[in-house]
Write a structure and sequence with these properties.
The structure is a single chain. By secondary structure, the protein is an alpha+beta fold. It has 2 domains: 60 residues, no CATH class; 213 residues, 2-Layer Sandwich (Alpha-Beta Plaits). It has a 5-stranded mixed β-sheet with strand order 12-11-10-3-13, with helices on both faces. The longest helix is centred in the N-terminal third of the chain and has 23 residues. The radius of gyration is 20 Å and the shape is globular. It starts with a helix and ends with a helix. Bound molecules: iron/sulfur cluster (SF4). Iron/sulfur cluster binds next to helix 6.
């Protein structure tokens, strides 16, 4: 009972933290600078009780009244508009493998937001063991939003495209379902929409490539970095759903990333923690970086507290075969 109370309290504190963290990323994600994000209305806005923290372009953390901050409006973004990208942004994700314990909240948060079925995953968590002697680790894997994306090159209709802010999207209205992009992606980031089991038929919601909802049957879908969230100065669903703070997201132009709790310099994080990109030698130039799984915060075994069919996916990993032999899973 006591534990439950504590958990509840921690949860509330974290949400509060998260909110502050997210708002501090307004500069990084949505606006051009702190100054341009402050309201310039002739009519002075009423002050509120809510204070938020913002990072200035010269790296100082300041606290301002929430009522004085401009946010992007939540508006429907047309297919043409969605091809342009958010001005002056270059989005980047950093995944801290030392913190991942396969909680799968990133997967679930993404599925809920994109109305996906249980087996449809834009974010996949793999178990990697480079050789039988090496220590295995959990690897969350979204689309890498490559700067040299083979998927875009092979698309015959321009349905998939690269924007100025770095995001690679799919326009369902143009996709003919040829699957060239699926076969060309070296990271298996794409999947074919064979038709959702739990149909989402809300026709009142106009389609936009920025949300991929409702998704059209017979087309290709994938992780989109949640541009609709970014326009509101919020984190992508995977990052805001992760209770471990594994996923940092931000803007390369401003050299800032946040996981909702910590806001840090992207370049320093990568340099200090030995950040790397998956299969760098392929030349696809991903915009997702990984921090190696050294000094792990959780025992790897905690990640096996998942459904049987998910454990089945890891059956070829030597570590899992050993655990099975020992009767531990
Ligand atoms: Fe395209 Fe695959 Fe790169 Fe995503 S990870 S941009 S789908 S090549």
């Amino acid at each position: 009972m006591q534990n439950k109370e504590n958990n509840k309290k921690e949860g509330t504190n974290r949400r509060k933290f998260l909110k502050l963290g997210l708002m501090s990323s307004v500069t990084a994600l949505a606006g051009t600078s702190l100054v341009s994000n402050l309201s310039e209305n002739a009519e002075e806005p009423k002050s509120s009780d809510e204070k938020i923290r913002l990072l200035t372009p010269d790296g100082k953390m300041v606290e301002v009244d929430a009522a004085h901050v401009n946010k992007y409006p939540e508006a429907h973004i047309s297919s043409d508009e969605s091809r342009k990208g958010i001005p002056n942004r270059k989005f980047v994700m950093v995944i801290d493998l030392a913190r991942c314990k396969n909680a799968r909240k990133c997967v679930e948060g993404c599925q809920k937001a994109h109305k996906l079925d249980y087996n449809e995953e834009f974010m996949k968590v793999q178990l990697i063991q480079d050789n039988p002697e090496a220590s295995p680790y959990w690897l969350p894997k979204p689309c890498f939003h490559c700067d040299e994306p083979p998927c875009v090159t092979v698309c015959p209709t321009g349905a998939t495209f690269k924007r100025t802010d770095g995001i690679v999207l799919v326009d369902n209205d143009r996709c003919i379902g040829c699957k060239f992009c699926i076969t060309s992606c070296p990271y298996s980031a794409r999947q074919f929409n064979w038709g959702h089991k739990d149909k989402f038929d809300d026709k009142s919601q106009p389609y936009s490539p920025e949300t991929s909802v409702p998704a059209a049957e017979g087309t290709v879908m994938k992780c989109d970095f949640c541009p609709d969230m970014l326009r509101q100065g919020k984190l992508p669903h995977c990052a805001s759903s992760c209770p471990m703070g594994v996923i940092y997201f931000g803007d390369k132009n401003e050299d800032i990333v946040t996981n909702g709790e910590e806001t840090v310099r992207f370049s320093e994080l990568i340099k200090d923690r030995g950040g790397y990109r998956h299969l760098e030698h392929l030349g696809t130039k991903p915009n997702v970086y990984y921090l190696p799984a050294v000094n792990r915060q959780f025992p790897l075994e905690r990640g096996f507290n998942v459904d049987e069919d998910i454990i089945e996916r890891y059956k070829d990993v030597p570590f899992v075969q050993d655990l099975k032999k020992q009767g531990k899973i």
